[in-house]
Amino acid sequence: MKSKLTAVALAAVVVAGTAATAIPASAAPAGAEPTRCHTADLKAGFAMGDDAKPEMEQTEKQTQAYVWFTNRSKRTCTLSGFAGVDMIGAQKTDGTWSLVRSSKKPEKMILKQGDTVDFSIILLPVAKSTPQKEKFVPAEFLVTPPNETEHFTLKWPFGGQILKQDGATHPATYLNPVGL
What we know:
Strand order of the largest sheet: 1-4-5-11-16-9
Mean pLDDT: 86
Structural class: mainly beta
Helix content: under 10%
Distance between the termini: 9 Å
Strand content: 25-35%
CATH class: Mainly Beta
Largest sheet: 6 strands, mixed
Shape: elongated
Low-confidence stretches: 1-28
């Protein structure tokens, strides 16, 4: 089950990330089940279509940003689980915020060469007038594919600020598994 945003992500202008050095996965033997996708097998970015952009200017409710992964390798591979997402703030007081996971159950996604899948980041925007200590201003996202240690660095292209809940048990900003 690929996300409906796959077409949007492919058709949209994206903010491309750069992968940290990773060892490419070897091709699986013929007839074997595909193995997991490694960071070097993928490219990543934010979905930029009009219906995919988070509504950062509103402060009444949560909104969503979507990050996509495209299999750029010559083999079929799988993704299953949650990406790791660390937000780096633009303010000196922001630091780094590692996002928590939703309670949704991940599904195994099979990506053939060129296939794209995404995941959503749920965000709770706040007004510019919110006191500085209560807001987090995103600058970059370090996005690590499931079960990997190397990440992509994606510049935050949407502006706005998020209610700072980096120490909360159940923050209103969190992420969903790949494919959901």
